[in-house]
Amino acid sequence: MSELDSPVAGVRVLRQDNPGPMTLQGTQSYVIAAPGGAVVIDPGDDDAAHQEALSALGPVALILVTHRHHDHVGGLPRLRELTGAPSRGAAAEFSVGAAPLADGELIELGQGLALRVLATPGHTGDSISLVLLRDGADVAVFTGDTILGYGTTIIDHPDGTLEDYLASLEALRALGPVETLPAHGGFPGPVDALAQKYLDHRLMRLEQVRAAAAGLLERGLEPTVPAVADVVYAEVDPSVRRAAEHTVSAQLALLARRGDI
């Protein structure tokens, strides 16, 4: 576990020691200092040292999670036990002692600080982002895995869909040049430019998948997920091949619904 230099005043960042192909250097857990007690966003995988370090930055008044994946919620029960704080996510299963988060909800933290819930499904069906406001102005957005510090994210199909993901990127782009605080990969800068970059990439990949599927059909072959992935993601590292296939599945599903394959 290590503390990173935060680009946003009043927000501390602890990076968990859980590096990997999907977590990059590790899960970035955030702690917002607030008058009524600290707010923790994404407690990470189950890891006593990490959750104890988060608890030590308290007292913790509230724990929020951006989505259901284990590298975000695995340590949730331990952090609740350490702090006695309620937890909230979009899904009821992660909301203990408080109601699930609702799109558009404003969580007042005191002294001009607030968090606004922004539903950003696509990576998973329950993915949310949290917009940090100071004196009514948007200053940063915690994006979970919807936008990462670098690279691109998986569409965990069928729970996540590409239609939802593209709409979520448009919603994030509409926030303007506020600071992006993702769950992995550092701090990549203003969210509007990043969301546009992600949209461009997704649409490029979608066209590549359409062309690959059409090519397979012309040869009398079925455009299965593995067959299309072999074409579009031929150079991908084996460690992320499964993630690539999830995303191809989402892309093929969208193309089929549009009647493009």
TrEMBL record:
Residues 1-20 are annotated as: Disordered. SMART domains: Lactamase_B. GO terms for molecular function: hydrolase activity. Keywords: Hydrolase. Residues 26-184 form the Metallo-beta-lactamase domain. SUPFAM superfamilies: Metallo-hydrolase/oxidoreductase. The keyword Hydrolase applies. Pfam families: Lactamase_B (PF00753), WHD_BLACT (PF17778). InterPro entries: LACTB2_WH, Metallo-B-lactamas, RibonucZ/Hydroxyglut_hydro, Sec-metab_biosynth-thioest, WH-like_DNA-bd_sf. This is MBL fold metallo-hydrolase. It comes from Galactobacter valiniphilus.
